[in-house]
Write a structure and sequence with these properties.
With 236 residues, this protein is α/β, with parallel strands linked by helices. The chain contains eight helices and nine strands. The strands form two sheets. The chain has a six-stranded mixed beta sheet with strand order 5-6-7-3-8-9, with helices on both faces. It has a three-stranded antiparallel beta sheet with strand order 2-1-4, with helices on one face. Helix 2 runs parallel beside helix 4. The protein is globular, with a radius of gyration of 18 Å.
Length: 236
């Protein structure tokens, strides 16, 4: 059973102007679906539609029975000025109603993994962009949801941070979680994603596995980048 099925006729922000149209995708347990497109293509709008943050939507976003919850990790960190890193984690645990013992073990493990244990009592608003991104990842992974919706996780992360992220997201997938990953890092996406949704100007250019996208772009040995550029050029 799919974790989520998305069928959007039109969606946007206000008035009659549609930002995205005719968008359909699904995510199953263990999937990592790469949402690929240029700036302004509608990736973030699709994510907002899935997470219920879009005011205007004609269509359906249906979560399957096996999807108990989801975590949304935005591109721009959202942090409280007066809370330390540990207090952010405690607040999230209270909202998610995570058992205290489970929370402490999980939080400490994530802080060690992302190498932030030494600053857990500091204010994240004073951290670097990369460290703030790690805080958002820790908050997302704290819940251990069925579905992760992640917007541009690689921005600001150093190579070690990327390695740590890829390790834990692979672990989550092996436990049955699905992932929707919006990214401009096509080389990385090609290596880690099970399928792709390529979009431009608010609609889907094509979707499928790398093999299927190579077939559709008529580039049997092409990289994801090459296939995307060719499909993009053909759509103009």
């Amino acid at each position: 059973m799919d974790l989520v099925n998305v069928n959007i006729n039109t969606a946007g922000y206000s008035g009659n102007k549609s930002v995205i149209k005719n968008v359909a995708l699904s995510i199953s347990p263990g999937d990592m679906v790469g949402l690929i497109g240029p700036n302004g293509a509608g990736k973030s709008t699709i994510i907002k539609a899935i997470t219920g943050l879009l005011p205007v939507l004609d269509g359906n976003v249906e979560f399957g029975g096996v999807c108990k919850n989801y975590a949304y990790i935005p591109e721009q960190p959202v942090l409280y000025e007066g809370l330390t890193l540990w207090e952010h984690l405690e607040f999230a645990a209270a909202v998610y109603e995570i058992d205290r013992g489970i929370f402490i073990n999980r939080a400490e493990e994530l802080l060690r993994l992302f190498r932030l244990a030494h600053v857990k009592h500091n204010l994240p608003t004073t951290f670097s962009k990369g460290m703030q991104q790690k805080v958002m990842l820790i908050l997302g992974f704290l819940l251990k949801p069925s579905l992760y919706v992640i917007d541009e996780p690689f921005i600001g992360l150093d190579p070690i941070g990327i390695k740590d992220f890829l390790f834990i997201i692979q672990q989550a997938r092996s436990e049955g979680s699905g992932v929707l990953l919006s990214t401009h890092s096509l080389d990385t996406a090609e290596k880690i994603c099970t399928s792709f949704v390529l979009i431009n100007e608010g609609t889907v250019l094509t979707k499928g596995s790398l093999w299927e996208i190579r077939e559709q772009s008529q580039l049997p040995n092409g990289s994801l980048f090459d296939c995307f550029i060719k499909l993009l050029e053909n759509s103009i």
